[in-house]
Amino acid sequence: MADLQLIRYAEDWKDKWDAFVDSSKNGTFLFKRDYMDYHSDRFCDHSLIFLSKNSILAVLPATEAGHVFSSHAGLTYGGLVMAKGITAVEVLEIFKMIVSYLSDNCFSTFVYKPIPHIYHLIPAEEDLYALFRYNASLSARGLSSSILQEDRLKFRNIRKYGIRKALKNGVYVEQSSDFSAFWKILSANLSVRHGLSPVHTVEEIELLASRFPDEIKLFVAKVDQEVIGGVVVYDTRTVAHSQYIAASPEGRDLGALDLIFDHLIHNVFSGSRYFDFGISTEHDGQFLNESLAYQKEGFGGRAVCYDRYEINL
């Protein structure tokens, strides 16, 4: 394909990049430059653009670290974002160009995180075939739980009990901009249970929510005006994804999260194609948090994989 070109992303491509993500068959707002570039101080961007007849055919949000070239290391997923009309042959040619480009630039490893199918507007797995052709190895698999909204399973009785308990004790749910109150609960949970901090600081999530107010939303459960639990939802074109989930000890006792998820699934995001709870795995998928998976499956969530592949160059 003589007309296919590879160029490295530069800031003067920002508007065209963002417009292409909007028109693509598998892009989400996470690939917009105002989202990816908020942590540009922590990741060295090396995104690529693929042109055909001077029009963007695909883009690859990517970063570099030493001799490793990766689908953007600051994102959960981030493979090729593709035009609706792209063909399998064109994707194979794009992979050929990537591998040649990376070899010429002294990279030793190509890490690739395909966009899970639930985020696709139309079928978009040409890249999975290309990975197979280049003998990519599966290096990580995160297990998430998702609900197909048009064919929901019934909630388990334990989740229904939590909803009734929350309502009986005066718990109510509302959309909120008070990320600070929720972050205190979230940070405490992660610190006590895992010795970790949230991926985003409260200042970062507030910044991102200000840039993407229609896509990043916080819903909290309250009792007597006090926040006792919450869920941050990333709302993409096909998926309402739970980015952060947490409840205080009181919130856990009162069924706060059960009430929030009931409201989100049946009311706020009932029109989304999927509701995704996020992964329940650790250590690149080698450990399944069974109690966490059981909780999500109690709402009707079933398995969707978030994968990572590697190609040795």
Summarize the structure.
By secondary structure, the chain is α+β, with helices and mostly antiparallel strands. The chain has helices at 14-23, 33-36, 88-104, 126-133, 157-168, 179-194, 202-211, 249-254, 256-268, 290-297, and strands at residues 4-8, 44-45, 48-52, 55-60, 62-65, 68-71, 81-82, 109-112, 137-148, 172-176, 216-223, 226-235, 239-247, 274-279, 281-282, 287-288, 302-312. The strands form 3 sheets. The protein has an 11-stranded mixed sheet. It has a 4-stranded antiparallel sheet with strand order 1-3-4-7, sandwiched between helices.
Q: Approximately what portion of the residues adopt beta-strand conformation?
A: 25-35%
Q: What's the rounded overall pLDDT mean?
A: 96
**What is the C-alpha radius of gyration, as a whole number of Å?**
20 Å
**Biggest sheet descriptor:** 11 strands, mixed
Detailed description of the structure:
- With 313 residues, this protein is of the alpha+beta class.
- Helix content is 33%, strand content 31%.
- It is built from ten helices and 17 strands.
- The strands form three sheets. An eleven-stranded mixed sheet has the order 2-5-6-8-17-9-14-13-12-11-10.
- A hairpin with a 4-residue loop joins strand 15 and strand 16.
- The protein is elongated.
- The two termini are 23 Å apart.
